[in-house]
Amino acid sequence: MTRKTTHWIVGPGALGRLIALRLGDHAAITLIGRRPLPLVQTLITPEKAFLTRRVEVARIDAPPSPPPEVVHLTTKAYAAEAAYATLATRLPDGTPLVLWQNGFDCQPRLTARHQGPVLCASTTEGAHVQDETRVIHAGHGHTFLGCLDGRHGELAERLAVTLSAAGLPTEAVDDIRVRLWRKLAVNAVINPLVAHFTIHNGELRDPPFRRMVERLIAEVAAILAAEGIAPPEGEGLAGWRSLIWQVIEATATNRASMLQDVQAGRLTEHEAILTPLLDAASRHRLPAPCLDGHLDALRHRAAALAQPPTAC
């Protein structure tokens, strides 16, 4: 029997558990978080089938030994660097690290810090947690995998084959930086609006939200043009409009990740999604009042969440 590669999946949220449960037949998995989850976990597939597995679990401050052959960091973007710092001294030099975060914030810094290959993933797989033992795979997607500087192509190909065989279609690419920016553009338009108005993605097609979407697309398109990032099809504003409205149509019934975080009373990934665009706007002296307004509102919400409750 072929020995299974050992994978640690750090961050047992919806995405982490989705990857763990899908990979279970193809790799030896340990799910690592701040607290251990129940050992038996169930994935509810988009086809309403139930995939139940026993998954090894561990606390991030007491990970198992021996060390893994691959680490997947699936925490929220704002928690990624702290989680990595907790584990870094336990990882041998050369251990591959796969970053699954939204936005384009922590990826360059962790790529520079890690003593080994770092791959970034850009995925459209949709999942959300139902409870401590169940995660719902809300919709099939596609994942792109690659290194920010285009290296480690063979490693990306091997991992793409493994993930694809596990039911998570994955493609190794040498332009992951561009693909991260493209996903960032989509998230920056959709997520703040649906989170603010607590609506599903498809409701963005209705007035008055459609006008808000168009204003955000115009800001994002100008910033990315200045950064030299092109849409996947078409050119300029028209290309970005086509991409973002296609995503809205395809995900019409979805609750975006930022909306899920707001409804659950959690922090959102606003810094990772909006700050890179606004930093670029500042570099190129471009106005971005809509993006800036959304970031300001989300920062105020985060500050309110951080305040201790007042006594009665």
UniProtKB/TrEMBL annotation:
One Gene Ontology molecular-function label: 2-dehydropantoate 2-reductase activity
Alphabetical list of InterPro entries matching this protein: 6-PGluconate_DH-like_C_sf (IPR008927), 6PGD_dom2 (IPR013328), ApbA (IPR003710), Ketopantoate_reductase (IPR050838), KPA_reductase (IPR013752), KPR_N (IPR013332), NAD(P)-bd_dom_sf (IPR036291)
Reaction(s) catalysed by this chain's protein: (R)-pantoate + NADP(+) = 2-dehydropantoate + NADPH + H(+)
GO CC, one annotated term: cytoplasm
Residue ranges annotated for the Ketopantoate reductase N-terminal domain, each copy included: 9-149
Pfam families hit by this protein: ApbA (PF02558), ApbA_C (PF08546)
Domain Ketopantoate reductase C-terminal, residue spans: 175-300
GO biological process: pantothenate biosynthetic process
Keyword Oxidoreductase: yes
Entry's EC annotation: 1.1.1.169
Alphabetically ordered keywords of this record: NADP, Oxidoreductase, Pantothenate biosynthesis
Pathway: Cofactor biosynthesis; (R)-pantothenate biosynthesis; (R)-pantoate from 3-methyl-2-oxobutanoate: step 2/2
Top-level taxonomic group: Bacteria
Oxidoreductase listed as a keyword: yes
SUPFAM superfamilies: 6-phosphogluconate dehydrogenase C-terminal domain-like, NAD(P)-binding Rossmann-fold domains
Family the entry assigns: Belongs to the ketopantoate reductase family.
Task performed by this protein: Catalyzes the NADPH-dependent reduction of ketopantoate into pantoic acid.
Name assigned to this protein: 2-dehydropantoate 2-reductase
Species: Halomonas ventosae
